[in-house]
Design a protein that fits this description.
The chain is built from eight helices and no strands. By secondary structure, it is mainly α. The protein has a single domain, classed as AmiS/UreI transporter (Serine Threonine Protein Phosphatase 5, Tetratricopeptide repeat, Alpha Horseshoe), CATH 1.25.40.600. The protein starts with a helix and ends with a helix. Belongs to the AmiS/UreI family. It is found in: Cell membrane.
């Protein structure tokens, strides 16, 4: 995924997280989902068409579609009011694929992004539970996870890469893994303090990251 594309993935995850928390209406999240979703479909298509058969480029580009389809589908559901079960089950596919990408990146030595892809797998698994299985009690937790991952796994790494400050190492990956575990525990405790309201349940049926 390009650094610029990843930066805007961070933005849309934050917006969709706020939608899951009931701070933004589903229709209010739709424009950015369409903008970023379109970007994340056009970009990999261009990369694949100009890859000259380079399998590394194709493999990297193929993963971008997972995000593009999610955001476009989210935008469509938000505007039309269509049920979110299909998007939820697609999110399960994304979660499994993200684990596969983490394994692939382990072979290439991109240690920090191994951790990042695993956190994305968890987030899309939460989308599956909320949208596909109707576990609306997880809506608030999922919203907080989406916002946090939007910052820590997308916007911040992209900004560091764009400015030339990004560094990858085994030590950085270990620190990222520890931070991820601690953040999840804290977010679970924060989410557990406030029950899901009806507005959030409605958002959960229409919005995903």
């Amino acid at each position: 995924m390009s650094d610029v594309g990843l930066f805007y993935v961070g933005a849309v995850l934050i917006i969709n997280g706020l939608g899951l928390l009931g701070k933004i209406t589903p229709k209010g999240t739709a424009p950015l989902n369409f903008f970023v979703g379109t970007l994340q479909v056009v970009t990999p298509t261009f990369l694949i068409m100009t890859s000259a058969g380079d399998r590394a480029i194709i493999a990297g580009a193929a993963g971008i579609y997972l995000f593009g389809f999610t955001y476009l589908w989210s935008g469509i559901n938000a505007v039309t009011g269509w049920p979110g079960e299909g998007l939820g089950w697609f999110s399960l596919f994304v979660a499994f694929t993200a684990v596969g990408y983490a394994a692939y990146l382990w072979q290439t030595g991109e240690r920090v992004f191994v951790v990042i892809w695993l956190t994305w797998a968890l987030l899309w698994l939460l989308f599956f539970l909320v949208l596909g299985l109707g576990r609306t009690g997880l809506t608030r937790f999922t919203g907080w996870v989406a916002i946090t991952e939007g910052v820590l796994t997308a916007a911040l790494p992209a900004a560091l890469a764009i400015t030339g400050l990004w560094r990858d190492s085994a030590e950085a990956a270990l620190a990222a893994a520890v931070l991820a575990v601690v953040a999840l525990v804290v977010l679970w405790l924060v989410a557990a303090r406030t029950p899901v309201r009806p507005a959030r349940e409605e958002a959960a049926r229409a919005v995903a990251g």
